[in-house]
Amino acid sequence: MRPSLTGPARTRLDARALYFVSYDGLVNTNSFQKHGLLTHGGHQYAVWYTASREAVVARRALGTAAWTAVTLPHRLKADDSHNVICMGVSPVDGRLHLNLDSHSDGFHYVKSVAGLLDDPSGTAWGPSAFGAVRTTLDGLPLTERFTYPQFLTTPEGRLQLSYRAGVSGNGRNALAEYDGSRWTALGEWSGATGTYTSAHGSSTARSMYLHGLDYDRRGRLHALFTWRERDPAVLADGGGLTNHDTGYVTSDDRGRTWRDDAGTVVGTTGGPDRVRVTDPGLVVDPLGPDHCLMNQESQCTDSAGLPHGVVSHLPVRLGPRPGGYAAARTAHARAHHLRKTAAGTWLKTEIPVPLRSSQRTRLVLDRHDNAYAVLPRGRIAAASAARGYTDWALLFDGAGLNAFGEVVVDETRIAADGVLSFMYQEKSAGTTPSPLYVADFALPA
User: Fold this and answer.
1) What is the β-pairing status of strands 307-313 and 43-49?
2) Which CATH architecture has domain 6-442?
C-alpha cells in the first residue's frame, strides 16, 4: 500500500489565538509540545492560549467538526514560546492531565476528575471537570528549573512525565510517574557533565534534547536525542547551534534502566550512573556541531518495534555555512529520515524537499508503516515501507493554510481512525492574534 492523503478537512479552534514570535516559534504550535493535540476514547483534545492569554482545553467527537472549549483558571505569564501546554492520559483512572507555562522555572499542573475520558458523554465537560491549577504534582514539587514536559502512558496504563531539570547547557532529563493515586519522582537519568571535544574546542557541560519518548507495541521505551554543548568553542562559527550527533537509548523496565543500541547499561534513573556524552555506544548517527542540527525533532516506532526519526541539518556535503543558524537553516537545511532496520543497521535518507525554514519537522507512520514527514508550514512528504523509504515525495504543499512554521501533530489519532491530524496557526504580524485550526487528512485504510 502506497502512502496517500485525502484532504485537508479543517476546523477552527479559535478565531483569535495568542500570537507572538519567540525563539522562532509560537507558544501554541511548538512541535515539541507532546501532546498539544491527542486522541483517546473516540474524542480528540486540543490545548492552546487565547488572545487574552487564558489556557484552554477543547474536545470533539471524532468525525465531527464541533469543538467544545473549557477555559482554565490560568493565564500565560510570559511571552516565551517554550511555555507550551501538553496533555497526558492516565488510563488507570480515566483522567486527562495538563502541564503548562514553564521555561527553566516553576510549572503549572491540572488534572480532570476521574473517569472523564472513560465516559465522555456521561461526565459534564466544563470547568467542574477539572481541579485546581497547582504548582506541584498533587504536592510533589519536582524542580525549580523545569522545562519541556512530555507525558507518556505505560503499557500498564500508568502515566509518566518526562521533563528537563536545570537550564540549557546544563540540564538533565528526569521522570515522574502517576499510578492512579499518587505521583512519584523517579529521578534524573541523563547527565550534564563530561568533556566533549570537537575539531575546534571543548565543552564540559551540556543538555540532552529528546526527539521523543515512545513505548513500542512490545513495551520497550525508545529515545532518540541530540546533545547541545554549553561552550560555543566547539563551533567553527560562534553564531551556530552547538547541537551534535544523534544518540539512542532504550529501556525495558519503564524508564528505570537505560541501554545503548548494543544492549549495554549506560544509566539508571535516580542513580549516580547517568547517560552521559562520554558513554561509548550512544551515537547512531554521528554529526559534528557545525551543521545546524536541530534539537527536539521527532521519532516514532513501527509495527515491528523499530525506531524511526527525523533529524534536520545542513547537508554534510555543504560544509559549515557562515552567518546565524536560522538563516543558514532556512537557506540550506534538509530533513533526514533516520531508521533502524530489522538487521540492526541504521539508515539515513535525505528527504528531497527544501525546508525553507529554521524550524522542526514531525514524523508519523500509518497502519502500513508508510512514513509521513510533516514539514514546517504544514507541508507533508511521504515514503513507502514497501520501497524501503527510498521514494520520498511531497504530497501536500500547504496551499491555503497560511501556516506559521511548526505544527503540532496528533501522534495518537492514526491508530484510532487512520487520520493524520495537526494543529496550526495562521501567520500574523507583531502580536496580532490569528486563527488556530486543526487540519485532517485521511490516510490509506
Assistant:
1) unpaired
2) 7 Propeller (2.130)
